[in-house]
Amino acid sequence: MNLTGNLLIGAQETGATTGSMKALNPATNLSIEPSFAFGGASEVDRAAHLADDAFDSYNNTSLEVRAAFLERIADGLDAIASELAQRASLETGLPVAQLEGEAAKSATQFRQFATVVRQGRFRQATIDPAQPSRQPRPRMDHRMQKIALGPIAIFGASNFPISYSVAGGDTASALAAGCPVILKAHNGHPGASEIQGRVIQQAVKDAGLHEGVFSLLRGDGNEIGEALVEHPLIKGVTFTGSEGGGMALFRRAQLRPDPIPVFTEMTSVNPTFVLPSALFSRGKDIGDGFAERMLVTVGQACLKPAILLAIDGIGFSEMKQALIARIEAMHARTMLTPGIATMYRRNVDRQLSAGAQQIAMGGEPQGTWDGQSFLFEVDGARLLETPSLSEEVFGPAALLVRVKDIDQMVAIARHFRGQLSATMQIEQADHALAARLLPILERRTGRIVINAFAHPQEVSDASIHGGPFPATSDSRFTSVGMSAIERFLRPVCYQGFPDELLPEALRHDNPRGLWRLTDGALSKA
Ligand code: NAP
């Protein structure tokens, strides 16, 4: 595909209006052709008006047309998967094979959401028929369905340049809901973003949809993101990135004259609790498994298990030695961007100055933006009295916590802020302690894992990739999995409607055979 570096505003291409950039190859520290255009507030305004113009027709496409559109995107991603992975690898330093996997996962997500659309359950069609003879007063016919929120601004993530980026799960679920999307591309992978954007732009055209269903913007600094979040025609925002950036955008959206929902996914250390019997019988294996997961994708993953806690006892030193051996054997690898590599080094220093003891170190960096692996250790008391030790270090570093006893483990579980996931390593004899920890973890995490490590994330009906603040800004929703669509929907009730004015999902003859809650009972009637 010929990359032009232009912004994609609806069906149009637009050159730079506020400057330009070149992608950086973080492995060589050299820039890559071509130049990529920056836009500003006027491009946001154009894209937002187009998206608003597209809304009514797109929200009212038949389920079949919308599902087929999502499948076109999936087919388009499959067709360019290899080229996309190669470009993304150049721009991020991630291995091509991993990125091909991401491209396949993205295509699968679009197909899964096509199924969700065809099933129509997301409408949550609900019918309370009229009761004309009810006493003391009659009930009118009430019907409810969920409709799309409106145009959505999506901030592509840096760390998964395909599956959480332009053609990622946020885009798939927003388009499935019936929302036009304006994508703010991450500057860490502009070429990969353009390739994905062109696939979606082409699918919009081929499906005969309004051009405003999708736009791809890029900008320098905060201006373009702020303009998107503040634009009156934008009705919702998703974001994956830092807590500072996510909360700045969240607060901005709440200060609008008409506040809008902002779904941010920000930070998580995904603690792993090793319970005594598991430590006794599997200490070494747990150390190996934890290290392997925490080093995946150079530790730049939202689900990286970053803190390993165990009560000092038999098995602790086997687990610790296994971790040390893995970390010491790991060579330094290229990190995603100079900003992320710099922040990583700063956060490693923060752990040391907060009193963590460095007990293992991987190979020395060779490239400018390589991330060296580290393992730190603290005791439970130190962790409890030093909150910064429990904060994310985005990169290949982890913290081993030597816990004094069961009560201290429970206290530590209580001290964690909101998490995407938490893991318990247990055996049968640990069930009583696991049951004691469970309600504490339920209040603090979106996912609790037994005897595995939380990465990678499944995309399925029961998947939850969310959690209490600061893991996300809204713990009621997930950003991964089929229920991610619920972020982009709102209920509308139709009262006393003649049949021909009702939306398809609520008509008497149920033309699409949807499951509906009718008078309190689920049926296809
Ligand atoms: P980021 O700095 O938060 O940026 C994410 C996106 O939001 C970028 O497009 C950025 O635009 C934009 N943005 C950030 N702050 C903004 C603001 N105040 N106003 C308007 N737009 C804003 O995240 P990142 O570049 O991906 O990585 C930085 C750090 O975030 C990492 O070191 C890591 O700690 C954390 N992170 C965490 C996760 C996770 O899943 N836990 C994932 C990714 C990153 P610009 O690039 O133009 O500034």
Describe the structure.
The chain is of the alpha/beta class. The protein folds into two domains: 259 residues, Aldehyde Dehydrogenase, Chain A, domain 1 (3-Layer(aba) Sandwich), CATH 3.40.605.10; 179 residues, Aldehyde Dehydrogenase, Chain A, domain 2. It is built from 14 helices and 23 strands. The protein has a seven-stranded mixed β-sheet with strand order 2-1-9-8-7-10-11, sandwiched between helices. Strands 15-17-18-13-12-19-20 form a seven-stranded mixed β-sheet, with helices on both faces. Helix 2 packs across helix 6 and helix 3 packs antiparallel against helix 6. The radius of gyration is 25 Å and the shape is globular. Bound molecules: NADP nicotinamide-adenine-dinucleotide phosphate. NADP nicotinamide-adenine-dinucleotide phosphate (NAP) binds next to helix 7, helix 8 and helix 11.
Radius of gyration: 25 Å
Ligands (ions, cofactors included): NADP nicotinamide-adenine-dinucleotide phosphate
Spatial order of the strands forming the largest sheet = 2-1-9-8-7-10-11
Strand percentage lies at 15-25%
Number of helices: 14
